[in-house]
């Protein structure tokens, strides 16, 4: 909430778009403490947290100067951007290869990144919470409790075949929702409409008319093409990790 006598965030955002860099300085001073608090929840290293905050504010400033970014709700947009910066930095660091040793020639062991894992769990939990209650129930029984369709059927009042079909739809819905959590909120209505369907697009679950509209938008919007490329990489990485952890199960 804006204090009495201070300029509202929406007015400051409009001023930044008009070229007033001092207005962005006001936004920075107003929201930096909250951003730093969030950064510390994602990484415990003070220098890493400060780097996250600095990079996030720089990215948001660049978006505003390019005519993109938020019109209102600056802090929500800033926090979303910070989480995505953290996520992509963790993924980038995972891909770094050192050339002064022989590690590229040794398969070695894969060690999880705590920051990346925390973000992934957050995205998965949000996606699960957005599923219909019946889908949540069948996923919990089959994926968490490890029960088979025959065990679950009496509890849901379904046949085993119906349970298997329901579980398949629920898993697909969870995958789409999980991917969708990686997509940052944007202000342009057509970019938002397109981004809201990226999860289904990556999973090839869009209706033909929606798919045509998404492709038409991507033909001219470079920013959305970049967001989609990041999401496709996330989908590939998640799929590979799932295979490694659970084996090549047909149900996935």
From TrEMBL:
What terms describe the molecular function in GO for this protein? DNA binding; sigma factor activity
Gene3D superfamilies from the entry?
Answer: 1.10.1740.10, Anti-sigma factor, zinc-finger domain, Winged helix-like DNA-binding domain superfamily/Winged helix DNA-binding domain
What positions does the domain RNA polymerase sigma-70 region occupy? 27-95
Enumerate the Pfam families for this protein.
Answer: Sigma70_r2 (PF04542), Sigma70_r4_2 (PF08281), zf-HC2 (PF13490)
What InterPro entries does the database record attribute to this sequence?
Anti_sigma_zinc_sf, RNA_pol_sigma-70-like, RNA_pol_sigma-70_dom, RNA_pol_sigma70_r2, RNA_pol_sigma70_r4_t2, RNA_pol_sigma_r2, RNA_pol_sigma_r3/r4-like, WH-like_DNA-bd_sf
Q: Which family does it belong to?
A: Belongs to the sigma-70 factor family. ECF subfamily.
Q: Which UniProt key words apply to this protein?
A: DNA-binding, Sigma factor, Transcription, Transcription regulation
Its lineage opens with:
Bacteria, Bacillati, Actinomycetota, Actinomycetes, Micromonosporales
Q: Which GO terms describe its biological process?
A: DNA-templated transcription initiation
Ranges for domain RNA polymerase sigma factor 70 region 4 type: 125-172
Q: What is this protein called?
A: RNA polymerase sigma factor, sigma-70 family
UniProt KW Transcription keyword: yes
Give residue ranges for domain Putative zinc-finger: 191-225
């Amino acid at each position: 909430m804006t204090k009495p006598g201070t300029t509202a965030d929406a007015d400051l955002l409009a001023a930044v778009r008009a070229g007033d860099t001092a207005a962005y300085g006001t936004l920075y001073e107003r929201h930096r403490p909250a951003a730093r608090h969030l950064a510390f929840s994602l990484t415990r290293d003070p220098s890493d947290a400060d780097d996250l905050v600095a990079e996030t504010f720089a990215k948001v400033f660049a978006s505003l100067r390019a005519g993109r970014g938020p019109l209102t709700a600056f802090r929500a947009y800033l926090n979303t951007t910070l989480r995505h910066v953290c996520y992509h930095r963790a993924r980038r660091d995972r891909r770094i290869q050192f050339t002064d040793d022989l590690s590229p020639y040794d398969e070695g062991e894969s060690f999880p990144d705590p920051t990346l894992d925390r973000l992934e769990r957050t995205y998965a939990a949000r996606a699960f919470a957005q599923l219909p209650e019946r889908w949540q129930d069948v996923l919990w029984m089959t994926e968490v409790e490890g029960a088979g369709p025959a065990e679950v059927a009496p509890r849901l009042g379904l046949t085993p075949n119906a349970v298997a079909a329901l579980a398949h739809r629920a898993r697909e819905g969870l995958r789409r929702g999980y991917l969708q959590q990686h997509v940052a909120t944007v202000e342009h209505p057509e970019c938002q409409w397109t981004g809201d369907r990226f999860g289904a697009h990556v999973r090839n679950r869009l209706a033909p008319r929606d798919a045509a509209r998404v492709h038409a938008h991507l033909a001219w919007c470079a920013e959305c093409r970049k967001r989609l490329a990041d999401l496709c990489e996330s989908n590939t990485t998640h799929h590979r990790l799932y295979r490694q952890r659970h084996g090549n199960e047909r149900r996935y």
